Amino acid sequence: MKTEQDLALIAGKFAIKGNIESIAPLGNGLINDTYMVKADGPEEYVLQRINNAIFKDVELLQHNIECVTRHIRSKLKEAAENDIDRKVLRFVSVKESDKTYWTDGNTYWRVSVFIPDAVTYEAVTPEYSYFAGKAFGRFEAQLADIPDTLGETIPDFHNMELRARQLHEAVAADKAGRMADPEVQALVEEIGKYEEEMTKAERLFREGKLPKRICHCDTKVNNMMFDKDGNVLCVIDLDTVMPSFVFSDFGDFLRTAANYTAEDDPDISKVGFNMEIFKAFSKGYIESAKAFLTPVERENLPYAACLFPYMQCVRFFADYINGNTYYRIKYPEHNMDRTRNQWALFQSAKAHEAEMKEWIDSL
Ligand code: GN1
Ligand code: MG
């Protein structure tokens, strides 16, 4: 654990304005450690320790983020937008180089300017979901002509075939002795029944029927900043911006926003897929994305809404079976609670698939 003093020394490596006054934990991310840095200058900052066990190529990671923020900034300028600094993240360089990350050889850090007067939410209304849909569609549209080549910061991040394989490997290795539990065994079997159906995207891709585009790949609802009137300011948490299927952004937003409760609520009687959120979000998304969406992408949006609870269930479950090595947990059974929750959400989404199709066709 770093002390506030250690953190201040690290933040001091970056070209921030003024003297640091305080540093305190910020947000609910499951991967990186995030802190709010208050200074006596004109700006406040966000300091993040990049989890380099997960993001193994930090150089590539920051390259992607710099390209993406530069490109979006130029698009905003072109569109003569006002208030650009609240609409795209700005990363601060290290004092002694032009890099946007600093390392002591062991840990990796970066600093961005804190966006003032903005809020994130853990849950949203249909109205805000509509705005979010427009914003993520616009984010993808803005990145459609990015001139740089972006690498996959976590290769095959949303590849369902890989995620299914990782679960099989976890089950076979049974490192934490979980397979003795009949509930775990039964769920492994249930999950297996949908594997063929849920790996459809990879087959469509191999058949040349589905493109990869630059996507955000972590569109959970708390990765979007709103102003006080509910307007979307910008999309944050850009670590996973990379080539993927549009299903990633569409599906992951709904996985979090359309669930009636949080992704780790242990009371699964509260879990369910909220069609009002689905309808509002998909309307907004299609309005922004219709210019580039192909018919195959569009007709598979209901599949995407089912795929992401399924994939997240598989990922939480594999981590639980492996003995909790990936996601931050707050108590020993946390990943199992998340698994049950996402499985219930998947079933609820599946039950609404036909209704989702009808709605998408009507737009
Ligand atoms: C992680 O970093 P955070 O908490 O925004 C994860 C996402 C998962 C999410 C589940 C790099 O996102 O893929 O959907 O947790 N990010 C990574 O809450 O694995
Ligand atoms: Mg986040």
Provide mean pLDDT, rounded.
Answer: 95
| Order of strands across the main sheet | 1-2-3-5-4
Quote the distance from N terminus to C terminus.
51 Å
Provide the CATH superfamily of the largest domain.
Aminoglycoside phosphotransferase (APH), C-terminal lobe
What does the overall shape look like? Answer: globular
Itemize the secondary structure elements and their pairings:
Elements: H1 4-11, E1 20-25, E2 33-39, E3 45-50, H2 58-78, E4 102-103, E5 108-113, H3 126-143, H4 160-173, H5 182-193, H6 195-198, H7 200-206, E6 213-215, E7 224-226, E8 232-235, E9 242-244, H8 247-257, H9 275-289, H10 295-299, H11 301-321, H12 334-351, H13 353-362
This protein binds 2-acetamido-2-deoxy-1-O-phosphono-alpha-D-glucopyranose (GN1) and magnesium ion (MG).
What distinguishing features does this structure have?
Phosphorylase Kinase, domain 1, two-stranded antiparallel ribbon, 363 residues, binds magnesium ion, 45% helix, Aminoglycoside 3'-phosphotransferase, Chain: A, domain 2, 5-stranded antiparallel β-sheet
